[in-house]
Amino acid sequence: MSGLPEGSRWQYEPKWDGFRCVTFKDGDRVELQSRNQKPLGRYFPELVEALVDLPLDRFVFDGEILAFIEGEPTFEVLQLRLHPAASRVAKLAEQQPATFMAFDLLAGEDGKSVISRTLRERRALLESMFEGIDPDLARVMLSPATTDRDLALRWLREIGHGLDGIVAKRLDLPYQPGDRAMRKYKLWTTVDCVIAGVYYKQPGQQLDSLLLGLYDREGLLHYVGRVRVGKADPETERRIRPLIGGRLAFSGRAPGGPSRWSGRERNPIPVKPKQVVEVSADHITDNHMRHGARLLRWRDDKPPKRCTMDQIAGGRSGAQEVS
Predict the structure, then answer these.
(1) d(CA 75, CA 56)
(2) DSSP 3-state of 94
(3) If we measure between CA atoms, which residue out of 313, 220, 231 comes closest to residue 273?
(4) Strands, E, within the chain: which ranges?
(5) CA–CA dist 211, 254 (Å, integer)
(6) Given 15, 25, 169, 186, which residue is catalytic?
(7) What is the pLDDT along the chain (323 residues), one digit of tens a residue?
(8) 274 is catalytic
(9) Which one of 24, 112, 236, 288 is most buried, counting C-beta atoms within 10 A?
(10) What are the CB-based long-range contacts (under 8 Å, 24+) for 30-37?
């Protein structure tokens, strides 16, 4: 975990797993805007209502929209909100209400911009504004922040219990849009997996992803995630192309079905399970790598049958900066 920066100029914050959002309030008018400046208010009406009810007349907050299930942010629940039917959105807002987690201030109660001020100054103003907000109003919250590196490292070790990583920000810098003023760290777990399938970008053309599997105690091969193939990756092509064909080797959990991003059906192409790779993953839930893994190296020294599910619970890990 030595990668986390040190020094009095750094502030550390949890990296939340949600939708980045800027909220604008002027009296009873509230707007929610994505990082791409697209309106989000219609998808989260309960947040619009909660922001209107805050005892603050004006502000511009930068933060994250989260959905908590049993105390932990769950990104999949947020994905369900991006639905065209207002009735469906209203039902989800009632059943699984979202939370807005504020972590920066762009304009104060007087309506004036504070983006030219340092993060140290902006954070102090933000904390003073939240002093008048009932902490039991769970729909709008102030994200924790600390200058204590040891505490930040403890947060990092708690990934998988509500955190997606740690963000380190310079206290002496003005506000900068996007992620330019922050350094993000995640706790990566390394896993040895067998390749048992692929996705193509187009049928029969360039490889898009390698489909990864692990064996359980009964010898069933379960799909656990995928790793992207680069545009020019002759080593992967050389190793995988001769193995393509036959029946899909996944005998337990299998890949396939509609993509959660595009909705299009993805058909896995079988690969004989003879190649082993070491990959790193940053978010493993329900025995599945939710984000795409990173290919670290080929493991010619390891038999495929030794790629077992117990690695997911006890893999080797360490903090790494991510882009």
Answers:
(1) 29
(2) helix
(3) 220
(4) 10-14, 19-26, 29-34, 58-66, 68-69, 72-73, 99-107, 140-142, 166-170, 182-200, 207-215, 221-228, 257-258, 265-266, 269-270, 276-281, 284-285, 288-289, 294-298, 316-322
(5) 10
(6) 15
(7) 446 888 899 999 988 888 999 999 999 999 999 988 899 999 999 999 999 999 999 999 999 999 887 777 777 788 888 877 899 999 999 999 999 999 999 999 999 999 999 999 999 999 999 998 887 767 999 999 999 999 988 887 765 445 667 899 999 999 987 666 678 777 667 889 999 999 987 665 778 889 999 999 999 999 999 998 876 678 888 999 899 999 999 999 888 765 544 445 678 999 999 999 999 887 777 788 876 688 888 998 899 999 999 888 654 455 556 54
(8) no
(9) 236
(10) 32/65, 35/178
Residues with Cβ within 8 Å of residue 170, at least 6 apart in sequence: 9, 10, 11, 119, 181
Taking alpha carbons only, the member of 136, 139, 64, 135 closest to residue 94 is: 139
Residue found by looking up tokens 């909660």 in the block: 50
Compute the residue count for the chain.
323
